[in-house]
Amino acid sequence: MQKKILSRKSLGIPYMIFLALFVMAPLFVLIYYAFTNGQGEITIQNLTGFFSDPNTLGTLCYSFGIAAVTTAVCLLLAYPVAYVLATSHLKEKSVILLLFIMPMWINFSLRITALKELLTWLEGNLAYHPFLNTVIGMTYDFLPFMILPIYTTISKLDGALLEAARDLGAGELQAFLKVTLPLSLPGIISGVSMVFLPAMTNYVVLDMLYNSTYIMGSLIGSYFASYNWHGGSMIALILLGIVCLFTLLTRGDEEETARGGVLL
Amino acid sequence: MTKKIWRSMVIVLVLLFLYLPILILSVYSFTDAANIGAIRGFSFHNYVTLFTTPELVKMILGTVVLALGSAFLASILGTMGAIGAFYSKKGMASAIHTMNQVPVVNADVVTGFSICILLVVVLGVSKDTFIPLVAGHVTLCAPFVFLSVIPKLKQMDSSIYEAALDLGATPGTALVKIVIPQIFPGIVSGFALAVTLSLDDYFVATYTKPATFDTISTYVVNATKGAQTTIKTALWALSTVIFLLVVLFTIVMNIRAGKNVQERNGAGQ
Prior knowledge:
Chain A is an all-alpha fold and 264 residues long. Chain A is built from 14 helices and no strands.
């Protein structure tokens, strides 16, 4: 008996080693590089440098701004869609839902190219409205990630609760505000976490739209291009810190995770 | 009635936002126009360029091979990890779960950059060996395979495995004949997810790929900055082809899913 349990357990060992090698070890190396300089001396200069340089601080604030606005726009667009879809009795509901998921299977760089061509035709030079175009681009890219979790939560809602609210005299709006909206909060939270973090770091969207990058992720890119591993590691570590903080804040007990829940 | 109109308006407008750029681009891919908005004649030349330029063909095939290869590796590792974690003691299992969660929540930029630092800068592995690239993509994908297999293990009827052992099967045979078939749907959807993640990846690839190799994402991002019109419009053709493939794939999957439901209903009667 002891032996066969051992054999099933030991199946996990290669994956454990893999995770240790390619997930944990890179993080430790990252920490080491972030707190050393080119001569291998331990230093906190990378950290203080980040927080005393107006450029990097400005980038941090700007990416927060972009991420916040993108998330808000996504939520404003996604909630009505998810709500309408989840509460409709249409037979073709699953097909329509599929239409919202399908763009995610098309390579994002090709989709952004399409958007860029269209926006260029409409606006002329994209560089005139950098903030607006960034938000449009990111919303275009991330919207499905907001729709799906909200849809899932609303469609799982217990209809009896709404009926009860109605029986007890709530109007339609009141029932929505007091029952549906609070109960769909877990979906909103998981949608927000799936849009906010990528929006802070995904610098390719900006890069593609008007050849300019000014968000957190792009700092790593520029350090990478100049072989400054120490500076880049510090930015990566700061981003990691933001990710951890955000994950702790939005943590739910649900099993469904970010990108995984979306496809399945 | 007005309520109904409002409701469909919401859906239609957002769908339009999502699809209009791709649809317009698809239409223009069949012309010889260099920009959207110009009215030009019908032409297949973008498609000819797409399938006859060696650079483009190599890039597309490379992306597909990379996606299938790393998804395959990720499926094996992720499945083994899930089975191992499922049967491990609580402390061990939660250690695996926590580590598994890191690439899932982490920004892809950070994942790619940290793997590059470890393998390329610290250990001195050459990017030309493709080891950093494949390692990066497997790291990106395996956690999602793990996450799609775990629920299937939880739903599994464990008494069948015990019965197989009682009837004389070795643990290995029981695993292959009993456990794997029961969790197979999870492995398949994990594999599919891994393929799409690898196909869509830009960040891990930029930090770990050999200089002479390009995936669709890295190629397109560089091409949008360049001024080469023939390549740019050939990529419109690529978008159209991928779009059609996705539509086709979705329809086939839907029909098959419909059939499955029918069969199950039939079996129930």
